[in-house]
Amino acid sequence: MPRVYVFLLLAAFGLGLGPAYAAPAPPPDPFTVSNIKIDASAESATIARDQAMAQGRPLAWTRLFRRLTASALWPKQPELNDNALLRLIRSFEVSNERRSTTRYLAEVTFHFNPAAVRALLRQSNIAFTETRSRPVLVLPLIAGKQGFDPQSPWAQVWNDPSLKQGLVPFVVPMLFGPEAPLLSRADLAQLDWAAFEPLVRRYNVGEVIVAVASEDAKTVQMIEISATSRTPASFAYAQSTFLADAEAVAEKAAETWKTRNAVDYAKRARLTADVSFDSLEEWAKIRSQLGAVKSVADVDVVGLALNEAEINVTYSGRPEQLRDALAQQNLDLRNNGGQFTLQLAGRSAANSQ
Predict the structure, then answer these.
(1) DSSP label at 164?
(2) Which class is domain 268-352?
(3) Burial class of residue 349, CB neighbours in 10 A (0-12, 13-18, 19+)
(4) Residue 1 reports pLDDT greater than 70
(5) Which residues pair with 240 in a beta bridge?
(6) How far apart are alpha carbons 134 and 66 in whole angstroms?
(7) What is the pLDDT of residue 347?
(8) Which of the 8 DSSP states describes residue 71?
(9) Where are the domains positioned within the chain?
(10) What is the DSSP letter of 162?
(11) How many angstroms separate the first and last alpha carbons of the chain?
């Protein structure tokens, strides 16, 4: 058989040979708010549309504010009139548009201006974060059922787009490969971080959440498991859906992240760090990635040698918040008894000496 036909046959039946991997999607823009449903009636469709859009803008602003801030700060949300909101919004897109002579319904995606939002929150002395966490692995389990079933309605709901826009990205495992026996265990909710190591490595996550929901979606038990902690929580509702349960679990995880990483830009600090690098290209990359961290106000190079530099970093927030923000830019900041070191994440110990 000619080689080209063999190739075509393999391509045609490739799905049966193993799982297919798609290129990872770019992270969502934290300043984009999607799926705002608007609905208004008036004496004409044009007036109804304008009224519906005016109703949608504050809804989008509230959702964005709550995305970037911890719940303790929600009562401090700046109240903005429509003109102020228009200045914050860069653009919008409308979908599922329906109208009659007197009514207008649609779903709107609002793109906020990041610089304008940051300026408003800083002027209002509101601590916030736009830094995304490392992915979190979610194991959605049904109470009374053994192991993880990726086809269950509880697992399927975690693919909803609304759960992918926040600061904490969630990953649901696939039931294949050497980890399949682990995912089929009846005692998944009792396992510790060490037991989840194979899944942690495969999906490169910083935390595991075991979420056990009742079959009627009225109760959820949530366990956040990391290398240093195990935190349980529970939710109960008279009436609920699996999507609402997932949103509650996601918000709880996001609250933990935001509380730890929300930066008070009214407070400035400075630290001195020794930087290690292998080449001028690597040094330039470190400088570039430092500049991408929003909480870093200024970087002053004190000294520069062949493979090392000394820098002063002026930043907002706490040192551990700066460390987490730098980690999102693939930079490794360490504090050794008050002596800070900085390098690209993943450099070997031999190269860093």
Answers:
(1) G
(2) alpha beta
(3) exposed
(4) no
(5) none
(6) 20
(7) 66
(8) G
(9) 32-123, 136-261, 268-352
(10) G
(11) 56
pLDDT (average), residues 152-174: 90
User: Residue 18 corresponds to which amino acid?
Assistant: G
Q: Name the percent of the chain lying above pLDDT 90.
A: 71
Q: Is residue 142 over pLDDT 90? A: yes
Domain 136-261 has what CATH class? Answer: alpha beta
Specify the pTM.
Answer: 0.76
**Phi-psi domain of 164 (left: phi exceeds 0; alpha: psi -120 through 50; beta: other):** alpha
> What pLDDT score was predicted for residue 338?
85
Q: Vertex 279, ends 275 and 285: CA angle to 5°?
A: 65
Q: Tokens 């269950």 sit at which residue? A: 152
pLDDT value for 17? 38
Do 166 and 254 touch, CB atoms closer than 8 A? yes
The residue written with tokens 């997932």 in the block is: 246
H or E element in which residue 287 lies: helix 280-291
Could you give the CA distance from residue 285 to residue 279 in angstroms, rounded to a whole number?
10
Give the H/E segment covering residue 350: helix 349-352
Residues 292-320: tens digit of each pLDDT? 898 899 999 999 998 999 999 999 988 88
